[in-house]
Amino acid sequence: MKTKLTKNILVTGVAGFIGFSLALKLLKQKHIVVGIDNLDDYYSVKLKKKRLIELKKYKNFKNKLINIEKSTSFDSLQKENFDHIFHFAAQAGVRHSAINPNKYIKTNILGTINLFKFASTKKIKSIFFASSSSVYGDSKNFPLKENDKLNPKNIYATSKVINEITAKSFSKNYSMKIFGLRFFTIFGEWGRPDMLLFKMFKNSLINKKLELNNNGNHYRDFTYIDDVVEILYLLMNKKTAKLYDIYNICSNNPQNIKKLITYFQKNLSTLKILKIPKNKLDVFKTHGDNKKIIKFLKFKKFSEFESAFKRTFQWYKKYNKKLIF
Ligand SMILES: NC(=O)c1ccc[n+]([C@@H]2O[C@H](COP(=O)([O-])OP(=O)(O)OC[C@H]3O[C@@H](n4cnc5c(N)ncnc54)[C@H](O)[C@@H]3O)[C@@H](O)[C@H]2O)c1
């Protein structure tokens, strides 16, 4: 039975890392989640299906196979009413944007416009969409603040800047509450196999050399998924008069990649390295300022990196023993 506190929530990209992780929390809190995804094969579809199996254990989960690129994508949801929308469906990954830039235009730009168009026909309390730390590009002034100049250096980042501009204009033109979340390298259990940590874990397990750009001379502001989910949950329940805003979602604790690999080799597992040149699409450093979100939500404390990292590796070893992804 629907209680007073139960909310109806649409999560796009629900078979993806962040969408899945948030949906699990929402379902546990007895909210009704309508999750859409097209099970895109950018990375292991098996992993995406495994995530969906976890979500389908909950009766309050409804799943639809939808490709957001089509203008008619949301027609089948016209009868539904949502309190909140979390929009995570996207073509992620910086490097893939050099291989298939069109996909970023279709999924990220067109798909997001389709979602906002759908939302504009509904009464939604708030909409949250995924932007990215990559919108800042290369910078010299750290930590990066929300009002710093944007300087996208690849098509992925460009698509996220366009999402932000689009969101702002939809919010103004339709008086919709829309909030952009600039995620900084999210990691944790059920994470993405195309990202560095899971590549490290996999190559270590199969004894294959890890290709390391620029001798690991990079910094990433790794942010643990449990913190992200907690922040998203608090955001959903937070009332604000604002129509539009942008938040960095980051731990404000950048890690040097070379040091991280050395730590992994010393303490957790063997890992061989194949040194390869710098990739032009990568930024040298991500390091976000998180004061704005901490103040807004009175968020207490980000997880300690080392233990979250170890926990993620333990999970990976157990869950991916048979190398399903
Ligand atoms: N994970 C990070 O560190 C990170 C960092 C910055 C920004 N982001 C952004 O956060 C969002 C979620 O990221 P994630 O790590 O969960 O990525 P993910 O790739 O795991 O999830 C995205 C999901 O969207 C789905 N999808 C792709 N194209 C689609 C389409 N046309 N129609 C419907 N579904 C489609 C995919 O199948 C996938 O399950 C993305 O917008 C991403 O760009 C993530």
Question: How would you summarize this macromolecular structure in one to three sentences?
Answer:
The protein has 325 residues and is an alpha/beta fold.
List key phrases describing it.
two-stranded parallel sheet, 325 residues, 13 strands, 7-stranded parallel β-sheet, Rossmann fold, binds nicotinamide-adenine-dinucleotide, alpha/beta, 38% helix
How would you portray this structure in words?
- This protein has 325 residues and is α/β, with parallel strands linked by helices.
- The chain has a single domain, classed as NAD(P)-binding Rossmann-like Domain (Rossmann fold, 3-Layer(aba) Sandwich).
- It has 10 helices and 13 strands.
- Strand 1, helix 1 (17-28) and strand 2 form a beta-alpha-beta unit.
- Helix 1 runs parallel beside helix 2 and helix 1 (17-28) crosses helix 7 (225-237).
- The two termini are 38 Å apart.
- The protein binds nicotinamide-adenine-dinucleotide.
- Nicotinamide-adenine-dinucleotide binds at residues 13, 15-19, 37-40, 48, 66-69, 88-92, 107, 111, 130, 132, 183, 185-186, 192.
- Nicotinamide-adenine-dinucleotide (NAD) binds at residues 13, 15-19, 37-40, 48, 66-69, 88-92, 107, 111, 130, 132, 183, 185-186, 192.
